[in-house]
Amino acid sequence: DDSWLHLPNRWGIPVDVCAGADVPIESSAIDEILTVLATADTLERLGAVTGHTEAAISRVVLTPDLHKGAGIPIGTVLQTRGALLPQAVGNDINCGMRLETTSLTADQVRPRLDALERRLRHLFFEGGRRIALSGLQREALLRDGLPGLLGTGRPERADGVWSALRPGDARPGRIHGSQYPTTNADAFRDWIHSAGGTSFDSIIGSVGGGNHFAELQYVSAIHDRQAAHGWGFSLGQVVLMVHSGSLSLGHQANASGLDQARAAWPAGVPLPDNRIIPMMTDGRSAPARRRYLDAFGNAANFAVGNRFFLSLMLRAGLAAECGELAADLVYDAPHNLLWQHDDGQVVHRKGATPAGGYAETAGGPYAMWGEPVIVPGSMGAASYVLRGHGNPRTLASACHGAGRRVRRGAAAQAGEAELDAFLRDFRVVTPLDHRDPAVNRRSDVMAAWRRDLKQEAPWVYKDIGPVVSSLRRAGVAEPVVELRPLLTVKG
Ligand code: 5GP
Ligand code: MN
Ligand code: MN
User: Which atom of ligand 1 is nearest to the CA of 335?
Assistant: First the structure.
């Protein structure tokens, strides 16, 4: 079938690329993954020295949005046994997409978009938000995720966030949620209680820069009526999509984890040329691994909490301008995370989202249709929600977006006319109000703003249509609804 490409390699590791011929894949990203495979040699050397000989890379899957990343390409699913690869998760631990349906329709919201834009700018960027958590609540969020923060009587479904299966004790046959179990929040204890410019209070509710966003969209087409109905979608309905990660916490957890792994590196084994530092899962390294996974989980839980607050901010803006509304979580989908399975396999997803099917979701709220797969396009294109099929060939994974086509930096060069056309047709809310005449007169400020925005323009991303049809043709996931943007908050 034309949606698969198998990459032969000298280690004999199964490497499958899931992308139709109509989806452009950067050849440098393919070269990059071949470099990553050399970690098989590192694991063999570590195994020989530590006696932990089962450590190996067992399978690699590359998704249609594959593009070059730092060390390991974005859009990589990498399964190991006997070892963890912190770098195969990405620095922004538990970056993900949260999606909520609302009781509003696009027709109700469109006439209020000017007012909504002002209100959201105030809420997101001008000190309008007020998220007052106590030290205990912050600690509970980092340690136990949203169920810890909300103290819900239904621990398995805090605010609808599915968390019955925690990635730390993932079992095949169960759904993978985005909460992460930890034993403590020690790695961030001082920070939790600190004040000032980088404190918990000052960053919670931030979108984060670049490709992160909080977006109001509406359902523009329904492709699977039964699943759409089951998940609460209707034509013309307004939905909220939030893309953000763990802000600075993920970077911090990963940096200190890698320092520990380097410090524990066995004498006699050279540090690998590809700079990918594995963490073995043998007994000897258990204390260091526990410390790493606790900090990792703290960051992951913070990310889920931050997405929750960002969606509350969107809800608050809508309620103030368009009247009271109800909102329901469809899914909070993680795309930078690792899952340790009972059989010893570890699945790392770096810029890839779980796409479990019936077997993976059995017994949970998604058993009927499979796991919701959220695939955003861009701030000027459609986004999709699909239902997963749990395809073993992709390790039950799908792409987490259309994927970048033009490198950051390269995008700033051209496209002034295209940007003007985009700004006429779409609505972006940024810290700077580009329609304010006082701002508009400052040509230096406007030029910098336009340069930044061009890095995220629709044309720097791949065409979402072929990306989604690759998933469908490959038997990975089936489109349920198509969404179009009404307003995008870019931070
Ligand atoms: P990531 O940054 O996690 O690698 O990429 C997420 C995906 O989100 C990108 O590949 C792109 O397709 C999509 N995307 C980026 N910016 C926006 C936006 O503002 N709105 C929407 N709907 N999608 C976006
Ligand atoms: Mn992301
Ligand atoms: Mn991110």
Answer: 3
Q: What's phi and psi for 224, nearest 5 deg?
A: -135, 100
Q: Where are the beta strands (DSSP E) in 324-442?
A: 327-334, 336-340, 345-350, 352-354, 372-375, 383-388, 397-399, 428-429
pLDDT tens for 112-128 read 999 999 999 999 999 89
> Tokens for 80?
């190991």
Residues with CB under 5 A from ligand 3 (ion): 92, 95, 245
Supply the residue whose CA is at minimum distance from atom 10 of ligand 1: 403
pLDDT digits over 57-89, tens only?
A: 999 999 999 999 989 999 999 999 999 999 999
ipTM: 0.98
Closest CA to 345 of 59, 12, 52: 59
Calpha distance 82→98 (Å, rounded): 32
* Ligand 1 atom nearest 462 alpha carbon: 12
| Rg (alpha carbons) of the chain, rounded to whole number | 22
| 4-405+461-490 topology per CATH | tRNA-splicing ligase RtcB (3.90.1860)
Task: Give the containing element (helix H, strand E) for 114.
Answer: helix 113-125
Mean residue pLDDT across the chain: 90
With a cut of 70, say whether residue 29 has pLDDT above it.
yes
Number of other CB atoms surrounding residue 204 within 10 Å: 19
Residue 111 dihedral angles phi and psi, to the nearest 5°:
-65, -15
Distance between Cα 208 and ligand 1 center (Å): 13
DSSP-based helix, strand, coil % in the chain, nearest 5: 40, 25, 40
The closest ligand to the CA of 91 turns out to be 3
- Cβ–ligand 1 distance for 376 under 6 Å, the answer yes
Domain ranges of the chain: 4-405+461-490
- Within 10 angstroms of residue 11's Cβ, the number of other Cβ atoms is 15
